[in-house]
Amino acid sequence: MAKKADKAAQYVPIIVYIFRKYWAENKSEFEFHRDELVEAATAIGVDRPDNLGDLIYSFKFRRALPPEILQSAPNGKTWMIEGAGTGRYRFRLVEVGGTTFKPREDIAATKIPDSTPEIIGAYALDDEQALLAKVRYNRLIDIFLGLTTYSLQNHLRTQVKGMGQIEIDEIYVGLNRNGAQYVIPVQAKGGSDKLSPVQTAQDIACCKEKFPDLICRPVSAQFMGDDVIALFELTCEAERVLIVEERHYRLVPSSQIDPDTKRQYAMRS
């Protein structure tokens, strides 16, 4: 934990330096190159980050931008970082609420018989890996979207025009009852990581470029604790990522789903 805190403290002055280098009151977006992070560290007298990509990833998906940056945004707006090509990134103003989203607390969780092999839970290396495995083994994408789906690839790294390299946590392909074909990019977050519309927008752009003949239905998954998994179906309208549907699922032994619960679920069908 101390090492993570030290890294965060090191990253803040570097990203603030980059922001101040380009920011002006009339600007709603501007770009910078990853190499400038090294120049910034030298200029302000801090150690060069061991992993430049982690610095960017941290502020894109893991933690809020520093107050020195956020306070410069006009009312109703906030700053975000997104990809802008190979080795390039962009600060952009977006509407407040457009940088992260989180599960609602007022949604009932549907009980699902837990089909996750115990050995998977024992040896998963991190929360994200465990979450992707639970979603896959319990066919939660099928249940959530009402499709028959198949996992195509984990951690797909590829280049997207205008964004540079991106990574999709897991990508599924699927069919509906009429034979329509879909591509489902899945974003998974565990622990303290935040679900990010930036990553969803990148996933959508990738699917449009790599799978132009398939219908894209992006999904985000988040651990909520107590074996509850929140799933979101998302869409992009006017450069904003919006929630289409949110559902919560609790993985339990079959013995914990009593007859009354089964009848209750049957009435929803």
**Helix count?**
9
Structural class of the secondary elements? alpha/beta
Beta content? 25-35%
Could you give the order of the helices and strands? Answer: HEHHHEEEHHHEEEHEEEEH
Number of strands: 11
Uncertain residue ranges: none
Shape call: elongated
Q: What is the average of the pLDDT values?
A: 88
Approximately how much helix is present in the residues?
Answer: 25-40%
N- and C-termini, Cα separation: 46 Å
Radius of gyration: 20 Å
Q: Outline the biggest β-sheet.
A: 8 strands, mixed
Explain this structure to me?
This protein is α/β, with parallel strands linked by helices and 269 residues long. Helix content is 35%, strand content 35%. The chain has helices spanning 2-22, 35-44, 52-62, 67-70, 118-123, 127-137, 140-145, 197-210, 259-268; strands at 29-33, 77-85, 88-95, 109-113, 148-160, 164-175, 181-189, 215-216, 219-225, 228-237, 240-252. α1 crosses α2 (35-44). The longest helix is centred in the first third of the chain and has 21 residues, at 2-22. It is elongated.
Gist of the model:
This protein is an alpha/beta fold and 269 residues long. 35% of the residues lie in helices and 35% in strands.
What are its keywords?
single chain, 269 residues, 3-stranded antiparallel beta sheet, 9 helices, 11 strands, elongated
Q: What topology emerges from the helices and strands here?
A:
Layout: H1 2-22, E1 29-33, H2 35-44, H3 52-62, H4 67-70, E2 77-85, E3 88-95, E4 109-113, H5 118-123, H6 127-137, H7 140-145, E5 148-160, E6 164-175, E7 181-189, H8 197-210, E8 215-216, E9 219-225, E10 228-237, E11 240-252, H9 259-268
Helix pairs in contact: 1-2
